[in-house]
Amino acid sequence: MVNRAARVFWGVLAAVVVLSVLTEFGRAVSGANVLVPAEDPGAGTRVVRFWSYFTIQSNVLVLLSVLPLVRDRQHDGRWWRPLRLTALLGIVVTGLVYAVVLAPTLHPTGLGAVTNAGLHYVAPPLTLLGWLLFGPRPRVTWATVGWAMVWPLAWIGYTLAHGAVSGWYPYPFLDVGQLGYAAALRNTGFVAVLALVLLSLFRLLDRRLPVTGPR
User: Fold this and answer.
1) Do residues 90 and 152 touch, judged by C-beta distance below 8 A?
2) Which residues cross the membrane (predicted)?
3) Domain of residue 93, residue span
4) 214 in any annotated domain
5) Count of alpha carbons within 13 Å of 194, Cβ hemisphere only?
6) How confident is the model at residue 75 (pLDDT cuts 50, 70, 90)?
7) Entry pTM
8) Average pLDDT score over residue span 97-126
C-alpha cells in the first residue's frame, strides 16, 4: 500500500512539473509572457532567459530526481543522492523566496497564473511533503550536502556573468544594474546562508526520521 501511494504521489508531482514547465516554456517561445511588446528581446533571448530562472531549473531537477521514484520508491544511486538533495534544496528555496520576496510584487493572470501556481505553490510543498512522508531515507551524508551546493553556486556565478554581458537579471534582488554589486552579493549571501541552513536541517531529518528502506 505504501509503495503504491508513494509511486502515485511522485507521479502526480512529476505531472505537475512537466505540465507547468512545458506550458510556461510555450508561453515564453510564443511571446505570450511579454507584457510590453516594445521591450520584446526576440524568441532566442526569451528561450535563454526562460532556462536561466532558478525556478525553472529547480523544477526540472525535481522532475529528474522523482522520475526514478515512480518506478522504485527506494531508488538509490551514487549520483542520484546529490541530485535528489539538490532538487529538494532548490525547490524549497524557490517556494520560500517567491512567497516572501517576489509574490507581493507579481500578479500573473490567465494561463500564467496557473503555471505560476504549479511552479511556486504546488511543486515546492509537494516535493517537501513527499520527502518527509516517503523518503527514501537515509540518503544524506555530509559529502552529499557538499555536492548539493554545487548547482546553486554555479547558478549564482552564471547569473552574474550573464547579467554583466546582457544587462538582464532574472530576479530584482540580483539586479546589479539597479542595486550595485555590493547589495546584489549581499542578497545572494543571504540565499547561500539559507541554503546551508536548509541542507543541515535536511541531513538532520534524514537521520532522525524513520528509515524507509534498506540503508
Assistant:
1) yes
2) 50-70, 82-101, 113-134, 141-161, 181-205
3) 2-208
4) no
5) 16
6) very high
7) 0.94
8) 93
